[in-house]
Specification:
The chain has about 130 residues and is mostly helical. The protein contains four helices and no strands. The model has no long low-confidence stretch (mean pLDDT about 85).
Length: about 130
């Protein structure tokens, strides 16, 4: 039983690795990652069932603790990323203010170009001294 379960877990793990490497859609990658997770669970069940004895649940307790730790770590990272994004958004100027500044700059540029052309036309009529 143990050898068969470990062989099945190895096959599931290989299939999951292949799926993670080959798939392009996020749903396919998640399903392949689930196969990897299933292989880990199967290994824990197989190892905790020595010589036909009933499983006492140590593997599942370990798995549960690891899952809770992983969820806490994920939650902490998500909160850090959220805080960084909010900080960047607070530091960014208002998009409407940027558009207004851009419009003012383009109008000042057009005015300067018009004055430069007028000055060039006035300078053409003069003779060099």
């Amino acid at each position: 039983m143990t050898a068969t379960a470990l062989l099945a877990a190895a096959c599931l793990f290989a299939l999951g690795c292949f799926g993670v490497l080959v798939r392009r859609q996020p749903a396919g990658v998640v399903m392949a990652a689930q196969l990897l997770w299933l292989a880990v669970v199967l290994v824990l069940v197989a190892v905790n069932q020595p010589a036909g004895q009933l499983n006492r649940g140590q593997g599942f307790a370990l798995l549960r603790r690891r899952r809770v730790a992983a969820q806490d770590l994920t939650r902490e990272k998500r909160n850090r990323v959220r805080a960084a994004i909010e900080g960047m958004q607070r530091g960014m100027p208002d998009p409407e203010a940027i558009l207004r500044s851009l419009a003012e700059a383009s109008s000042r540029k057009a005015d300067a170009e018009a004055r430069a052309q007028q000055a060039a036309h006035r300078g053409e009529g003069r003779t060099p001294a």
